[in-house]
Amino acid sequence: MSCVQACVCDVQTRRIGTFISVQQLCPHCQFTRNWNSQPVLGSTPVGNLQLSVATYVNGASFYKLSKVFKAMNMQLCKYNTFRRHARMFIEPAIVSYWQKSQEGMLQKLHAEEKVIVGGDMRADSPGHSAKFGSYTTMDLKNNKVVDLQLVQSNEVGGSYHMELEGLKRSLELLKERGVTLDCIVTDRHLQIQKFLRESSITQFFDVWHIEKGISKQLEKAAKKKDCEKLRGWVKSIRNHIYWTAATSTTGPERVAKWTSILNHVQDIHSHDDPLFPKCLHPLRIAQYQWMAAGYVANLMDLIFDQVFVDPAPFTQELLKIPIPEDLCSQYERPDREEVISGYATRFNLAAV
Question: Among 3.30.420, 1.10.357, 3.30.428, 3.40.720, what is the CATH number of 112-188+322-351?
Answer without folding.
Answer: 3.30.420
